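Hi D.,

Good news: the full-assembly prediction came through. Inputs first.
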Amino acid sequence: MQIEAATGSPASNTADNVIIFAVRSDAPSARGAVGELDAAFDGAFSALAADGELTGKRDEIVAVHALGKAPMKRVLIAGLGEPAALSLDTIRNATAGAARRARSFADGNLAIAVSGDPLAGLDEEAVAEAVTEGVLLGLYRFDRHLTPSQPPRNVTGVTVLGAHAAKLKRGIATGAVLADATNFARDLANEPSNVLTPTEFAGRAQTLAEETGLEYELLEEADAAKLGMGAYLGVAKGSHEPAKFIILRHRGGAAPALGFVGKGVTFDSGGISIKPANNMGAMKQDMSGGAAVIAAVGALARLGAPINVTAIVPATENMPGGGAIKPGDVLTAMNGKTIEVINTDAEGRLILADALAYANRLELSPLIDVATLTGACAVALGTITTGLMTNDDELGDEIRTAGKRAGEKIWALPMFEEYDEAIKSSVADVKNTGGRYGGAITAAKFLAKFVEDTPWVHLDMAGTDDAEKDSGATVKGATGVPVRTLIRFALGRAGAS
Ligand code: BES
Ligand code: MN
Ligand code: ZN
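Then the structure:
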């Protein structure tokens, strides 16, 4: 979608929908765009405010028709809530909600007013970026497998209206790359597993590489066997779909390269330790971590970020075929460590064991892995917050800061050494489950064995990869978390931000 920058007053804008913002406890008629437009609208906004129909509270969207009094068709006033709590995140979410509301009425274009009150205290570039992300994320739909009964309604164009054209243009450009990358990851994760097989996943990564200038490399099962990736190949054995180990490189700066590793299980049936039928379909999204790291390096290439980043995605199905691994089996990962398989449904850590050992072999540092790894993490933190576990607290803080900037919530869980006890095995170097309690942490402890001394952060997104309903910039289905955190982190490392 085309998003343009323009300077000028919202009061004279000719778009179908002009979006302006209001905060709570603001006398809406007295300040900013609301005040500017109130006179043209013959005091309609003051009247709505007086009657409590326009309060500026969060999630409120008030639509008022101009009826010829001003050049636009209608104004949408998006509430931002308490001014003291105003943040880019609130603006991103409010814009997304207003854009969806505008689309629900009819086809038409949008103008979004970002200068003046109540946004006057914020950097216009950052606000332009947030509203660009809000529009593109909020209007995302996954409808490629739907036969429409009538053509869907569309937003036909967007203008960000402010005071400084250069700042607006920069903000729009960055915001569009971050949002498009998030939507790219959403597309991959929303795709059913009969469409997005490991082969198709690799094909989409290759296409992205051709479009963005990333280097693309693929390890077939035979290559993985030569490298001794017994844990990854063990998981692949139960499926007829060939496993694909995907590598994408962005070369924009000096060595060493950052390593982003993403879990790429295109369908997780549980394997021989099969999952219950109820909601098993959600496991088509068990490659969301892989989608996120691929999307993030794609965005870094598009932005020309002055840094080296390698993304690694071990892609496979986890199926209970005749060749499948069984509870009690012992696998050997490429770093020589042996693993007792207690439960074949703890497959994510098996494939990540080899992927992290491989990343270590490439001397990537630091390593960030992203995975829909444990139901336990979703139990601990719910569906709002991604879990973070690390062997380097400073690096963990850096990722949390990047998450804050990106509008993605992340919280750390502890990695005390006492948790190691839970994954000790009497027949192998480590076992692949640590029991019911502290399941997110014992999974991370397992991964740590394959990371060794490299600074590393593990992000468990089992709770945050999917949304049940539309809310702000999040839409029902795959969320695209934590694409923007990864991009922000790499940009921070590259000295931009
Ligand atoms: N992919 C699942 C984790 C998951 C659960 C992601 C719910 C998203 C929503 C993972 O492979 C898994 O099955 N984990 C097991 C581990 C257990 C067997 C130790 C789990 O969490 O139950
Ligand atoms: Mn599983
Ligand atoms: Zn899984």
